[in-house]
Amino acid sequence: MNRPIRFVAVFAAMMTFALLLNVTYSAAFRQSGLNNDPKNTRVRDAEFSQNRGDILVGGTAVARTVATDGQYKYLRTYPKGAEFAPITGYYSYYFGRTALEYSQNAQLTGTSDSQFLQRVTGTLSGRKPQGGSVITTINGRAQNAAWNGLAGKKGGVVAIDYTTGAILAMATSPSYDPNLLASHDLPATQKAWKSLNANSSLPMANRASKEIYPPGSTFKLVTASAALESGRYTPDGQVDTPSSIVLPQTTNRLGNEVDCGNGTVSLTEALDNSCNTAFAKIGMSLGQNALREQAKKYGFDSSIDSDVPVVPSLFPGDMNEAQVALSSIGQYDVAASPLQMAMVASGIANDGKLMTPYLTQSVRASNLQTVWRHHNTTLSHPTSRSTAESLQKMMVSVVENGTGGAAKIDGLTIGGKTGTAQTTKDASPYAWFVGFSENPHVAVAVFIESSDTERSEIAGGTLAGPIARSVIQAVR
Q1: Residue 28 has pLDDT above 70, yes or no
Q2: Number of H helices and number of E strands within the chain?
Q3: What share of residues in the chain are helix, strand, coil (percent, to 5)?
Q4: CA distances (Å), origin 106, targets 97, 209, 413
Q5: For residues 99 and 88, is the Cβ–Cβ distance under 8 A?
Q6: CB neighbour list of residue 475: distance below 8 Å, 6 or more residues apart
Q7: How far apart are CA 279 and CA 329, in angstroms?
Q8: Is 165 left (phi over 0), alpha (psi -120 to 50) or beta?
């Protein structure tokens, strides 16, 4: 009789111990994940009755919480809604969180590990918990220049301090007003959601970092990087520039958009004038593996461990020679976000060292004490220092002597690369400009998906270059 009782007692003790162990583990290690799970309605209801922290650009709140007399005690508001939407994202009862509202949710609600002491102190003193404020890396003037530059256009702009990885501007157009989704009028938020998603202009698409497009001739920076890294090419070395070439195993001809001669020019001159035939031949000579490895070093085909909302840019897999030729000039299935192309310019401008992009500079608790600071990290070394320095000079030549003249700023050293990417036969081409400023330390990518410009006048230099110039001048 005692033996079955002992068995039951031991089993009950083991189950109790396992339960306590699970509760302890959940409290110690799973609390943040459970609290941040958008399906956790209990936490969601509590959060909507909590004073959520601000998201700040300089000293200005671009997302803040205001007290209300409704069912929920606090309402999330966005004073500069559409302009900063790709940075703040939205905080919605039904539709969850995006961008910094998502990635920094624990900091904004005060549930992060960095705010543990503040929570304990608040509990002991009887104060209700308050969230911390997120101080972003965004430069307000640069963001405004990017936003205004995109007025009336579809596209995206990203500017980065290439010495640190700090995002200085991230704008997308058209955009949307996050206040529509953050409202406490829940049926109205559902109507707004349906309307925004039904809009053919896709206002909720973050064209700056979460959509990818053919980068066109801006990708020639990657091809030029691979060429110089191979040791087989130099900036002053001669490369073939026939007026056109027949793509291997096809009857299709690839020509140059401008007169590149019909002989040879230096690699620098080929970049100045964006000679398609030269870079197609270089790409085929290097081979797809060399191009792919170079693209990966700049961040293609991989995600970024960062608070920046991003999707991976793509360099195609197994290709034939014709596809390699087209990929070398940023066509075929090459696809990149403006953020990715700004990263290419960053790696070049920073002497071959690519820093991890980020949006959050620091976090300040409700008592105004800084509880967390960003520490810069190196993402990769895409090229050697000597290759990067050569590319810098080549990009400066593009602005001084080639297609990038619209980005020139008196008194500043500006390097760049223009791009005009073909899409479909009937659609207007995409316009790109990728560049950097020596001082201030800014790398920028401007992408124009469409505008009111006549098709025959669409070019990266004329459409995107002036926006890049304005953004750099705003940081200056």
Answers
A1: no
A2: 18, 19
A3: 40, 20, 35
A4: 12, 23, 41
A5: yes
A6: 139, 141, 142, 159, 168, 437, 440, 442
A7: 6
A8: left
- Render pLDDT for 333-375 as a digit per residue (tens, 0 to 9): 999 999 999 999 999 999 999 999 999 999 998 888 899 999 9
Average the pLDDT over each of 33-42, 174-183, 345-354 and give the range with the smallest value: 33-42
- The sign of the torsion formed by the CA atoms of 411, 415, 420, 421 equals negative
**Is residue 121's pLDDT more than 60?**
no
> With 0-12 CB in 10 A as exposed, 13-18 as middle and 19+ as buried, what is 118?
buried
CA of residue 284 relative to chain centroid, distance: 30
| Rg value, the chain, Cα | 26
CA distances from 333 to 95, 329, 337 (A): 33, 11, 13
In this structure, what token pair is assigned to residue 186?
Answer: 């829940």
Dist CA 354 CA 339 (whole Å)? 13
Residue 286 backbone phi and psi in degrees, to 5: -70, -35
CB 399, CB 436: distance < 8 Å: no
Could you tell me the CA-to-CA distances from 456 to 1, 146, 240, 338, 429 in Å, in that order?
96, 24, 28, 23, 10
Q: Which two structure tokens, joined as six digits, stand for 130?
A: 């308050």
Measured CA distances, 9 to 4, 17, 30, 167 (Å) = 9, 12, 30, 60
Instruction: Tell which residue, 87, 167, 221, has the closest CA to residue 355.
Output: 167
| DSSP code at position 407 | G
Q: Cα(49)–Cα(52) distance, rounded to whole angstroms?
A: 9
Report strand pairing: 74-77 vs 60-67. antiparallel
- Catalytic-role residue among 92, 209, 217, 274: 217
φ and ψ at residue 248, rounded to 5 degrees = -55, 140
> What global pTM score does this model have?
0.88
Owner of token pair 């959060």: 47
In the 8-state DSSP scheme, what is residue 217?
A: G
Amino acid 47 reads E
- Identify any residues that bridge with 238 across adjacent strands, giving them in sequence order: 266
Range ranked top by mean pLDDT from 288-302, 355-369, 439-453: 288-302
Catalytic annotation present for 183: no
Residue 120 tokens, joined: 């304990």
Residue 457 has pLDDT above 50, yes or no: no
E strands in 222-313: 238-241, 244-246, 253-255, 263-266
- Give the Cα separation of 75 and 119 in Å (integer): 22
For the chain, percent of residues with pLDDT exceeding 70: 88
Four-point Cα dihedral 318, 322, 328, 329, nearest 10: -130
pLDDT, residue 215, reads: 97
On whether the CB atoms of residues 362 and 375 are closer than 8 A, the answer is no
Only one residue has tokens 């919605």, namely 92
Contact call for residues 155 and 206 (beta carbons, < 8 A)? no
